[in-house]
Amino acid sequence: MKLVRKSPTAWSQLLGTVVIAGSMLGGGVGAAAAASAGIPITGCAGPSGGGDWRFYGHDWSNTRTQPDETKLGTTAVPGLSSAWATQVAPAGFSGGSVPAAQLNGTPVVADGCVFVGSADGHVTALNADTGATVWRSAVLGDAANPGLGGLIVGSVDVEHGRVFVLVNQNNGPFAVALDEATGQQVWRSAPVSTYPGSYTNANPVSYRGMLLFGFSAPEGDPHGQGGIAFLSENDGHILTITPTIPPSDQAKGFAGGGIWSAPAIDPTTGFAYVVTGNPSSKQTEHRNTNAILKVDLNKGGDFGHIVDAYKGNVDQYELSQLTQTPVCAASEGTPLDTFPLDDPGCGQLDLDFGASPNLFTDASGNLIVGDLQKSGYYHAAYADNMERAWATPIGGPCAFCNADSAAVTGDAIVAVGTPGGVMTSLSRNTGSLSWASPVGDGAHYGSVTVADGVVYTVDTTGFLDAFAAATGAPLLRRPLSADSGQPAAGLTSAGVAVARHTVFVEAGNSVVAYRSAAALP
């Protein structure tokens, strides 16, 4: 997920090589095969109930819901307490304004370990039961040149004995595969974009031998293009790269459409659904920007092609008349440097789709793709023809608002609407409001997670919040800094994973694990 909208900051820090702490299996094929087969990895915890959380959205539909949790219901959650807290990166700054240790993803829990990436360019594996470090690996051995938000901004994806990581290298974002058991590098891909200032704040998704993820160009660059990269899981070679805007339309002056989120995938039809950001032009907006795109993943003639799109609210929203003023015309073709409102003189209010889309079915069995746009609307479209099913406002247009990924549970879509911060539950069939409960943090980037009838999020004031999924009743508001020992407040997209009857939270530069006495064997 996209975090802040500022020019990238150069870091002078040099990153080291892989650091291994604790005993573990040897590297290579044997370790990868062991992890893939579900054999316990030395250093990680043993088997447990409560399921895993292997990548950002939990599943290909991005439901962000843990179906295997049965011990952390509404009566147990008020009693949550810290089981362990582990600092995974140093406090402070590597240079400029980007925290060296900032954690911005959802913890990934697989095969008895918790895997997180930090802005300073390290991936850390922790024992899920104790928080002990199993290994810590640098994803960049040469001089670091981090892009917007740091070297690692999203979550990792753990599949088939490998940990897939997106490296936000300025001017050349790429992916890395690490051995799950040792943290040793298996492969490093070529850059997916070498356009000046290109970066990735996205989350990768592994799908049938491929790794999918988005990338972006600098905000407002009149020639910069976002897109989707498709890599081979086996060796990291690039299968294809699809720009958000077709080259024929780029030649007409259309630009923009960065991608900061994780795709949702329907394995039955073989289509992915990817959401895009605003246009770079101040007076023209392509259909594929501020949109939900439908992308063909079936190997064949249309592989990787954008086959359809649902258009959300245009970037100018209700101020489109401003695009025709002399003031706006005079600035067309120049960088949008009036952060945080891209160009108020032209009416551009930065209304991306910054959250990850959800896939779900309605009461009639229709497959729906939905997503929360920064305009404040949660949009729902029929996945077959990308026509609108419904659209409901849960917030207002705001550059720092409505970028949290929603969760799908039962008959509801649950997301935080801003400004103001209100946890909102909508009917997945009609979009009608079921309940609303205040979070009260103003802007909000922390995604929503659901497990065993409880809704979780991390707010920008540094609290772990929990609500009853059926009614919205508040269940928990716990200060993360008290448990982590580090500042945890700020505009972050850090999320919550529920696995192994434990609530795992990224907090500042630490990971905190919460358990309830009621959930213990």
* Number of helical stretches of at least 4 residues: 4
What's the quaternary structure here?
single chain
Approximate helicity band: under 10%
Taken from the alpha-carbon principal axes, the silhouette is globular
Number of strands: 34
Largest sheet composition: 5 strands, antiparallel
Distance between the terminal alpha carbons, to the nearest Å? 36 Å
Unreliable parts: 1-37, 93-97, 336-340
Q: Order of strands side by side in the largest beta sheet?
A: 1-7-6-5-4
Q: What does this entry look like structurally?
A:
This protein is mostly beta strands. It is 4% helix and 33% strand. The protein contains four helices and 34 strands. The protein has helices at residues 29-36, 247-250, 326-331, 480-484, and strands at 19-20, 65-66, 81-87, 108-110, 113-117, 122-127, 133-138, 157-159, 162-167, 174-179, 185-188, 205-207, 210-215, 227-232, 238-243, 264-266, 271-275, 291-296, 306-311, 358-361, 367-372, 377-382, 388-393, 407-409, 412-417, 422-427, 433-438, 449-451, 454-458, 463-468, 474-479, 496-499, 502-507, 510-515. The strands form eight sheets. Strands 1-7-6-5-4 form a five-stranded antiparallel sheet, with no helix packed on it. Strands 2-28-29-30-31 form a five-stranded mixed sheet. The chain has a four-stranded antiparallel sheet with strand order 3-34-33-32.
